[in-house]
Amino acid sequence: MNPTWQAEMFAAVQCVVRLPANAASPAMPGIQGTVKFLFVNGAVKDPIIIKSTVNPQLDKLLLKQVVTAKIPKPFGLHTDQPHEFVMSFEMFTPYESFEYNVYAAIDRKQEYPRDPLLQDIMGITALDFDYLDAKASHIVMVKSSGTKQLDKASLDAVSKAELPAAPPGYAGKTLHMSVIFCYDINYAETCPTGENVIDVDGTRIMRRRVTYY
Questions:
Q1: What is the Cα–Cα distance from 136 to 112, expressed in whole angstroms?
Q2: Cα dihedral 22→27→103→128 (10° resolution)
Q3: Burial profile 18-56: b = 16 or more Cβ within 10 angstroms, e = fewer
Q4: I need a labelling partner for 156 at 20 to 30 A (CA). Which of 7, 148, 163, 181 fits?
Q5: Average pLDDT, the chain
Q6: What average pLDDT does range 153-176 have in this prediction?
Q7: The whole model's pTM is what?
Q8: CA dist., res. 134 & res. 141, Å (int)
Q9: Which is nearest to 97 in space by CA: 156, 159, 192, 24?
Q10: Using CA atoms, how far apart are residues 85 and 64, in angstroms rounded to an integer?
Q11: Which of 64-68, 125-129, 167-171 shows the lowest per-residue confidence on average (mean pLDDT)?
C-alpha cells in the first residue's frame, strides 16, 4: 500500500472518531485509543482494541466509529489484498473534531503549484478566515510566503474547501480560525507544528550525472 494513501486512510478514520457530546466539556482533552483492524474490499473490518482509552464504553464507541469511516480508494501495490493496520486515534471533543475536519477539508484541496515545485521554491503562508455554517469568508493573508503562486494556492485551498457543518451549539455563529501552509520539497523545509498546520509536500527526483569510463 502506498504511504500517501495510508495517511489519507488515517485521516478518514480520524475524521469520524470523537467523544460523545454528553461526555465532553470544551476544556476536556482528547482521549487516545489504539485499534488493530483489517482493510478489506474498501472498508475497515474486525477492529479490536490494542490500547484502551481506559473507559470500556469509550472503547466500544471507538470501535463503532472506526468502521463507519469512508476510506478513499487505495493505490499502490497489492491493493486487492487484505491488509492489517494498527493505528492510534484521538477521541476528540466535539469542537476539536470539528476543527480537525475543517483542516482536513482544506488539506484535501491543497496542491503544490507546478512552477515553484520545479524551481525548488518553498515557503510558509498563514491565513485567517471566518467560518459560518460550512462557509469560509473574510480570508486574509497574514503571512506571505514571498511567492505569489504559493500564496494563491493557499487562498484557493481555503476558499474551495468543502467545510463540515458546525458542531452542536455553534450553528449560526461566526468562528474565527487560522491555518498555516508549509510548502516543503523533499523534507527540506522546517515546518511549524500544530493542529492548524498543513504540510504541502513536494517531491523532486534528484538526478545524478553518471560518468562512464
A1: 21
A2: 130
A3: bbeeebbeeeeebbebebebebeeeebeebebeeebeee
A4: 7
A5: 89
A6: 94
A7: 0.81
A8: 20
A9: 24
A10: 17
A11: 167-171
The rounded Cα 195 to chain-centroid distance in angstroms is 9
Q: What is the DSSP letter of 84?
A: E
Given a contact cutoff of 8 angstroms between Cβ atoms, the answer to whether 11 and 104 are in contact is: yes
Interacting residues of 69 by C-beta distance below 8 A, sequence separation 6+ = 9, 12, 13, 15, 16, 44
Contacts of 146 (CB under 8 A, 6+ apart): 123
User: Per-residue confidence at 30, pLDDT binned at 50, 70, 90?
Assistant: low
- pLDDT by residue (tens digit) across 86-121? 999 999 888 899 999 999 999 999 999 999 999 999
Whether residue 51 contacts residue 96, with contact meaning beta carbons closer than 8 Å, is answered with: no
- pLDDT(163) > 50: yes
CA neighbours closer than 13 Å in the CB half-sphere of residue 60: 2
pLDDT over 70 (residue 213): no
The SS3 call for residue 11 is helix
Structural domains of the chain, ranges and CATH numbers in brackets: 3-92 (3.30.1150), 96-202 (3.30.2420.10)
